[in-house]
Write a structure and sequence with these properties.
This protein is an alpha+beta fold. Helices cover about 55% and strands about 15% of the residues. Among the domains are: about 15-180; about 365-544, Heat Shock Protein 90, CATH 3.30.565. The protein has helices at about 10-60, 90-100, 100-110, 140-150, 175-230, 245-300, 300-320, 330-360, 375-390, 410-430, 480-490, 495-505; strands spanning about 80-90, 115-125, 130-140, 165-175, 370, 395-400, 405-410, 435-445, 450-460, 510-515, 520-525. The strands form 3 sheets. It has a 5-stranded mixed sheet. The chain has a 4-stranded antiparallel sheet with strand order 1-4-3-2. α5 packs parallel to α6 and α9 packs parallel to α10.
């Protein structure tokens, strides 16, 4: 890539102003130069015309035109460097041989009778400049000359007649060394004056650009460079009394405001650093407390479950002893024992959920992959929950695509996930509703790897879940419908545990639902757990 050449503003101004001065002075001096040349040429033409008129008047008086044509030298008093010749029409060809350009002049005189003379600037064989003046003498002129000699008056040659033939030409050559020297001297003075004016203009422009324009800009640039290096205490000192000073004042005000804001931010940052230190200490303490809590719950699981299992067992024994007994007292005892069993089982479920969640958070759960039949597992879970669904006349439907291969996963964890999702669907499905459990093998649309996965969906006909609450249902102790939970019980941990277990199985749970049209929970898991990646999920998570 070609890098552009960087030119400073000072250099640009000096180059542009210098070029403008040279261009303007060159144009002005060029006009004067050309006009001077024209004035010299016009002066020489007027001298030649006056000389020709004087010579013709003198020869008319003497009757020289009646004599044979010969070369006539000018009088000495007319000056040196001048030659005058009178050429008859019979000698035109001879004259053209010596000066070929005369041919065109003679032709013009012959074609245009009104043309009187011709003046041109030429150079001789030695390169010396001279002026040539040609005067036409026509037949009418000769008649006037003869009449003037006879009558004694002076004829004029200003208005030749129409179709007046050319008789003679008067040729005057002016070798004007003096005008040339004067012209050269004037040009020398003109060039010297132009150079002096150019230097003065360039110096003036340099002073203006340097002192009035570039100097304040340099101050502002140096100030900006110091600010860029972190010095906010510097100020731009510009006292030009114009827009540059106004710009410097605005720049200084901006620096003052920036310094004030920077000091405030530094104070806030120090305060935030202190707060962050306190929060870090608090987080460490919370982490330690949470870790201790998780380890405590994981270690005392046996001590918590054993008494509850004993209470449930003895209550069931008492319930069996009262089956065949009747009477008001026995019926009351049966009701009390049923409440004890129901409450104990709910408490046992709560403790089991809390212990499972504590083990997951404490990292105490291990994944043991083993072969699992998808169809048999799902059918067994439906049969396990069918009595609970039959009490509310809820239809359970199983749809499994044929030829689903055996998958390698942790069967107990997988069953716990599907069991929680099925129990949740039955809980929120109204009476005479329907829960559909389906399984198939397909590719996940958002999976980066093009590998088939096991898709298990649980669809119910319940009230549905609003879109804004679909991710919140996986939070701990979250209950979107307290009325249903109050009726059927629940801790709000089932979906949380299912989500955590799905992550451990390198899968994920998705929700498709609209309010009033039921909800569908979709469990995606790989066909075989990749033990090289540990517990890292293979699927992209959609949780916020």
């Amino acid at each position: 890539m070609v890098r552009s050449v960087r030119i400073s503003l000072a250099t640009k101004c000096q180059l542009l102003f210098g070029a403008a001065v040279i261009l303007i002075l060159s144009a002005a001096l060029g006009v004067v130069w050309h006009r001077m040349q024209l004035l010299v040429d016009e002066g020489q033409q007027e001298i030649a015309r006056q000389l020709a008129s004087a010579w013709v008047d003198d020869k008319i008086q003497l009757g020289a035109f009646l004599q044979p044509v010969e070369r006539i030298e000018p009088p000495t008093e007319l000056g040196e460097g001048m030659t005058l010749s009178l050429i008859d029409k019979e000698d035109f060809d001879l004259a053209v041989v010596h000066d070929p350009t005369l041919d065109s002049v003679i032709e013009i005189f012959q074609m245009r009778p009104e043309r009187q003379d011709d003046f041109r600037r030429k150079r001789d064989l030695h390169g010396q400049a001279y002026y040539r003046y040609v005067r036409a003498i026509r037949k009418s002129d000769m008649a006037h000359i003869q009449g003037g000699v006879a009558a004694g008056f002076k004829p004029t040659l200003e208005a030749p007649g129409f179709a007046d033939p050319l008789e003679k030409i008067l040729l005057i050559q002016l070798h004007a060394q003096l005008p040339a020297r004067q012209l050269m001297l004037n040009r020398v003075y003109l060039i010297a004056g132009g150079l002096l004016a150019c230097l003065l203009a360039i110096g003036t422009f340099w002073f203006i650009t340097t002192k009035l324009i570039l100097s304040p800009l340099r101050v502002l640039r140096e100030t900006a460079e110091q600010v860029g290096r972190g010095d906010l205490n510097i100020r731009a000192e510009v006292t030009t009394g114009d827009e540059f000073q106004q710009l410097a004042d605005v720049f200084n005000d901006m620096l003052t405001t920036l310094k004030k804001n920077t000091d405030q931010l530094q104070g806030i940052n120090k305060s935030l650093d202190l707060k962050l230190g306190e929060l870090a200490e608090t987080n460490v303490a919370l982490y330690e407390a949470n870790k201790i809590k998780g380890e405590f719950l994981a270690n005392v699981s046996h001590e918590l479950r054993t008494p509850l299992n004993s209470i449930v067992g003895f209550a069931e024994v008492l319930e069996e002893t009262l089956i065949d007994r009747t009477g008001p007292v026995d019926e009351k005892r049966k009701r009390y024992i049923a409440n004890i069993i129901l409450s104990s089982r709910r408490l046992l479920d709560l403790i089991n959920d809390l212990l499972d969640l504590a083990k997951i958070e404490a990292g105490r759960i291990e994944i043991n992959p083993s072969p699992m039949s998808v169809a048999d597992t799902l059918e067994g879970l439906l049969n396990l929950l069918r009595p609970q669904a039959s009490k509310r006349d809820i239809e359970l439907v199983l749809r499994v695509t044929p030829n689903i291969p055996i998958v390698q996963t942790d069967a107990s964890k997988y069953q716990q996930i599907v069991f929680n999702l099925l129990a949740n669907a039955i809980k929120f499905t109204p009476e005479r509703g329907r829960v559909t459990l389906a399984a198939a093998v397909m590719n996940h649309p958002n999976s980066p790897a093009d590998e088939p996965m096991l898709r298990v969906s649980i669809q119910d006909t319940g009230p549905g879940i609003p879109p804004e609450d679909q991710q919140r249902v996986f939070d701990k102790f979250t209950q979107l419908d307290p009325s249903v939970t109050k009726t059927h019980g629940g801790t709000g941990l089932g979906l949380t545990i299912s989500k955590e277990l799905a992550d451990l199985l390198q899968g994920q749970i998705e929700i498709e639902s609209e309010p009033g049209h039921g909800a569908t929970f979709i469990l995606w898991t790989p066909m075989a757990i990749n033990t090289d990646t540990g517990n890292a999920p293979l699927m992209p998570s959609h949780r916020p």
